[in-house]
UniProtKB/TrEMBL annotation:
Family: Belongs to the bacterial ribosomal protein bL27 family.
Ribonucleoprotein among keywords: yes
SUPFAM superfamilies linked: Ribosomal L27 protein-like
Protein name: Large ribosomal subunit protein bL27
Source species, domain of life: Bacteria
Nucleotide-binding as UniProt keyword: no
GO annotation terms (biological process): translation
Phylogenetic classification of the source organism: Bacteria, Candidatus Curtissiibacteriota
Source organism: Candidatus Curtissbacteria bacterium RIFCSPHIGHO2_01_FULL_41_11
Keywords tagged on the record: Ribonucleoprotein, Ribosomal protein
GO cellular component: ribonucleoprotein complex; ribosome
Alphabetized Pfam families for the sequence: Ribosomal_L27 (PF01016)
Amino acid sequence: MAHKKGGGTTTKNRDSAGKRLGVKIYEGQLTKPGNIIVRQRGTRIYAGVGVMIGRDHTIFATSEGSVKFRQKQGKKFVDVI
């Protein structure tokens, strides 16, 4: 007779891969048009001057320049100057 229970499989033991979200180009760094600056879920950071926001809330540069982060009335914005 066995003295230990059988080590069956567990359910709910799966995890998804990380989605690589976050800031990709930091303040002071140079960027070109089309470069992704921030990948995010929802608008945690808003689009300012010289950037646009994509369908999946990705913020990308529309002009060449230096990345600048700022806050206005409690909201975070990113600009390319």
